[in-house]
Amino acid sequence: MKIGMLTSGGDCQALNATMRGVVKGLSNNIDDLEIYGFYDGYKGLIYGNYRLLESKDFSGILTVGGTILGTSRQPFKLMREPDENGLDKVEAMKNTYYKLNLDCLVILGGNGTQKTANLLREEGLNVIHLPKTIDNDIYGTDVTFGFQSAVNIACEAIDCIHTTAASHNRVFIVEVMGHKVGWLTLYAGVASGADIILLPEIPYDMDKIIDAIEKRHKAGKGFTILAVAEGAISKEDAALSKKELKKKRAESKYPSVSYEIAARITEKTGSEVRVAVPGHTQRGGSPCPYDRVLCTRLGSAAARAIMDGDYGNMIAMINGETKRVPLEDVAGKLKTVDPNCKMIKEAKTIGISFGD
Ligand code: F6P
Description:
Layout (H helix, E strand, L loop, with lengths): L1 E6 L7 H13 L6 E5 L3 H5 L3 E4 L35 H11 L4 E6 L1 H12 L4 E5 L15 H22 L2 E6 L6 H9 L4 E3 L7 H13 L5 E6 L5 H4 L3 H10 L5 H13 L3 E4 L12 H19 L5 E6 L2 E6 H4 L11 H8 L7
Parallel strand pairs: 1-2, 1-4, 4-5, 5-10, 6-8, 6-9, 7-8
Antiparallel strand pairs: 2-3, 10-11
Helix pairs in contact: 1-11, 5-6
Bound molecules: 6-O-phosphono-beta-D-fructofuranose.
């Protein structure tokens, strides 16, 4: 059996752990296994940059973050466009696949990666997708690998801010990754006891944020912690058209939404506000134990699907069980936080403000 494997898009802590699960699952059950690792995501598949790997290459990497194959962003919307030398990328990927006589391509990545995996499926290739992203925004799986590891890091960052904020009686904003969704901010915010949590799914009202800070102040609490998603948006901005919003952001003097919120709080309350941005630390380091288990299970289930010859699926985790979900049912969809979900209601019950 000949398997191709690649990791694409932004990295996370648990890519190696997942590849290890797939390879262990296959090599433990198949004698004549060849694994071709493509370098730097789809780039390696397009330009034929790969290496024949052995199962021992996947040993000792359960705890190692990043990806032994390297990764890159190859936007889905450009996949059908020729490269700078006129190369048809989709045809090039198919040629590499057929030249190597692969039985299947195992593709680890987020939403954009998944769309290209589905495109390759439509083009007739056997593919299996594994849902990676710290953003947890892949539709059709309860959880993505990388998410819990990132929650741990973001939570630790807010924990550290807590002690200094309390000592100085300051308002602090911690900006959390997550692209257009608020999963990471919601979980890290609740886990670290943030007082105000701002998510892209719940456009915020500046007056409500000020009310929440003042309420704490009146209750004798000198500091306030805001966990703000990088994609958080004000009510006013949410009402703008895409074009108007793009223009407004291009002209903004603030590097990100958190700095704008900080300036508004200072304007209205006169309080000092500090902004902390943990940024890419949230994607780094070793996968947490939860992710190691998740990846081992997803990887093993992917190996089983390959041995069954059941292709064209994402291997998902649903209600604690691994499931094969057809790519055609999920590609192009985004899993967002439901503003009316129980978790948000429960958080509001204990006094966390969502700025709405
Ligand atoms: O999708 C993962 C993610 O870390 C997002 O949370 C973030 O918006 C983005 O990638 C950052 O991308 P880059 O690594 O290209 O700066």
